[in-house]
Amino acid sequence: MSIRARSVAGSAAPPTPCDDELVTDLLPWPTARRPAHASAPGDGAVAGEVDSDVDPVVDPAVDTVTLAQRLVSEARAAGAVACGVATAAVWPEGREAFRDAIRRGLASDITMTYRNWRRATDPRDAVPGAQSLLVAAWPTRRHPAAAAPGRAARVARYAWHDPYPDFRGALRQLATTLKTYGFRARVLCDDNVLNDRAAAIAAGLGPRGKSGNILVGSWGPHVLLGSVVTNAALRATTEPAADVCGTCTRCVRWCPTGALAGDGSLDARRCLAWLGQRGVSIPVEFRRAMGSRIYGCDECTDACPSDVASNWGAADRADRPSIDPVWLLELDDDDAVLAAVSGWYVPRRDADVVRRNAAVVIGNTADPNDRRARAAISHAVLYGGAQVRAHSMWAAAQLGWLEVVADGLARETDPGVWADARTWL
Fold first, then answer.
1. What end-to-end distance do the CA atoms of the chain give, in Å?
2. pTM value?
3. Scanning 24, 268, 269, 324, which has the fewest C-beta atoms within 10 Å of its C-beta?
4. What 8-state DSSP symbol labels residue 266?
C-alpha cells in the first residue's frame, strides 16, 4: 500500500522541508490553542521554539499505518538495529524511577535529564501536539581491541569512536520524511531533553536490565538510543518487552565499585564512568578502582550475556581504545589535550579533568622506575591546576615517590589540595 491511500487530483506535491535541523523549523501551537501539557515560552520551553499562528499543512491522504512501517524500515536500512513506535504520553514508571533516584541520593550531582525530569518523561513537551515517537537503537559494539601497551590507559568501548553523527543523520532523515508529509518532527538524541531509556521501553525495543541499561535483542546493552517525536498519530508497533535477565546477576557482580543494586538502579556516587566525567575531585576511595580506566567503564555492558558476539562490528582503524596517560599529562596546551580526546564528554571543556584522570591511571599502573612517568607527575604536582596537583600527589604516593609528594606539599597553599592530601596521608 502506498503512503497516500488515494490520489488527490490537482493537489500540490507535499511540502518539502527547508532543512533538517533539529529545532529551527518547528512550529509550536499558538498561545490560545496550546495544550495544557505544553510549555509556554519563558516557563521552560525548548530553545528554538517560537510562537506562531501558522501550523504545517498535513497531507490528508497520508496513511499513517503505512507511513509508520516505512519509517521503521528506513531506520533499519540506515543502520539502526531496532526501531519501534510509542504513543506520546507521560511515562509513570520513568517518573517514579527519577523520584526514587533523587529520594535515595543515587543521582549524585548529575543534572542532564534530572534537571527537568518531568519534561524528560513526557514527550509531548518536545513537540507541540505530539502524538507519537519513533525510537531507534544504534549499535556501538566493536571487537575487543588487542592488548594495549603496558602504560596505555583504557577508553570505554562506547567512546572509541563517535557514532552520534551517523545516528543523528539517520534520525534526521526520518524527521525529513515526516516533514515531507506536513507533520512536525524533532530529533532527540543525547541532548538531555528526553529520557531515552524510558522511550525505548515504551516503544518495545527492550526491557530495562538489572544494570539499568536497555537490553535490545541480540545486541544487549551495546546500543545508543534516540527518538523522533512527531505530531503524526503513528500506531504503536509493539507491546513493551518482557524481562530477559531472569536470575542472572553478572552485571551486578562485575561492577568494580558496587554501584548496581540489581533492581535496575545505578548509584552514580559509585559509578566509575560518572566519577571520571565529573568536574570535581574523584573520591579517594574510588581512585584505585579506576585502575587503567581513563574514560568510562565497560564492566556492566561487557558482563551482559544477552548479546551475540557474531553481531559485533569490525574494529575500525580510527577507533581509539587506549591512550598514553603520560603523554596527556605532559601536554601543556589545553587545546591539544581536548583535541586528543575529542568525542569525550569533558565538563566545561576543562582539560584539567583529562589530566586528573591521567594522573590517577599513572598512579595505578606506572612502573615506579619509569623516569618519564615520574617527571610528568613531578611537573604536574608543582605546576598543574589545583585538581591536577591533588591527584598527581596521590599518584606519587601510590608509586612510592615520597620526595615528589614532599616537594608538592612544601609549596602547596590551596586548602582544597591540602584537604585531599589529608584523606590519604
1. 73
2. 0.80
3. 24
4. B
